[in-house]
Amino acid sequence: MDTYATQSPAEPSTTDQAKDKAQEAAGQAKEKAGTQLRSQVDQRSTEAGQRVGGFASDVRSVGEQLREQGKDQPAKLADQAADRAERLGGYLTDNDADRILGDIEDFGRRQPWVVIGGGIALGLVASRFLKASSSRRYEQRSSGQLPARTSYDPPATSGIGTSRVSNGQSAPVARPAETWAAE
Q1: Pairwise CA distance, residues 175 & 181, whole Å
Q2: Where are the domains of the chain?
Q3: What is the torsional sign of CA 14, 19, 20, 22?
Q4: For the chain, give me the number of helices (H) and strands (E)?
Q5: Residue from 60, 67, 54, 62 nearest 82 by CA
Q6: Distances from the Cα of 102 to the Cα of 18, 67, 68, 89, 105, angstroms
Q7: Rounded distance, CA 117 to CA 107, Å?
C-alpha cells in the first residue's frame, strides 16, 4: 500500500510556479530597465547633440574671425573641427538609443584595448579628483570652515540584557580612603 501521493507530471509544483513567477518578474524588471535606459540615452544624446552643434557654430565663428585677421591655416583647422563637431552633433541628435548603443557596442568589439584604456584613464582621473577634494575637505575641516566630525556614541546596552557597553571613555575611579592616607 502506497501512502505517498505522487504528483502527476502535468501539474507543476509550487516551487516551479514560484520559479516561473520570479523569472517573469525578473524579465519584466529587465525590460523596464532597458526601456528607461533607452529613454535616458535618447534624451541625453539629443541634449548633447544640441550642445555640440552650438559648440560647432562657435568654432566656426572663431574660424571666420581668424580668416579676417589673415590667419588662414588656423582658420582652416577651426573649420575642420567645426565640421566634425556638426557631424557628431547631427549623429547624436538624429539617431535613437538603439542605434547609438549598438554603435558603441560595435566599437567596443572592434577596439577593446581602446575601451580598456579609456576605462583606466577615467578611473585615474576620478581617483585624482577624489584625492584632491579629500585633501581640500581636510584642510577646511582643520581650519574650522567645516564642522568637525561627530563621534559615534554606541547604545548603552546591546539589547540582550547585558551590561553597559563601553564607548572607550573611562570614568574617574574613586580610590579607597586607605590609599590617600598612605601618600
Answers
A1: 11
A2: 23-110, 111-144
A3: positive
A4: 5, 0
A5: 60
A6: 35, 40, 43, 18, 5
A7: 13
Query: Cell match 532597458: residue?
Result: 34
Taking Cα atoms as reference points, which of 145, 143, 144, 162 lies closest to residue 154? 162
Is 3 or 76 the better-scoring residue by pLDDT? 76
% of the chain at pLDDT higher than 90: 20
CA distance 146 to 154: 24
Among 49, 55, 101, smallest CA distance to 82 is for 55
Q: Provide the residue type at 59 as one letter.
A: V
pLDDT tens for residues 76-89?
999 999 999 999 99
Q: Write the single-letter amino acid at 102.
A: G
Q: Is residue 77 classed exposed, middle or buried when 0-12, 13-18 and 19+ CB atoms within 10 A define those classes? A: middle
Write the CA distances from 134 to 17, 67, 127, 139, 141, integer angstroms. Answer: 51, 46, 10, 9, 10
Q: For the chain, how many residues are written?
A: 183
Residue with cell 590667419: 71
Q: Tell me the C-alpha distance between 41 and 36, whole Å.
A: 9
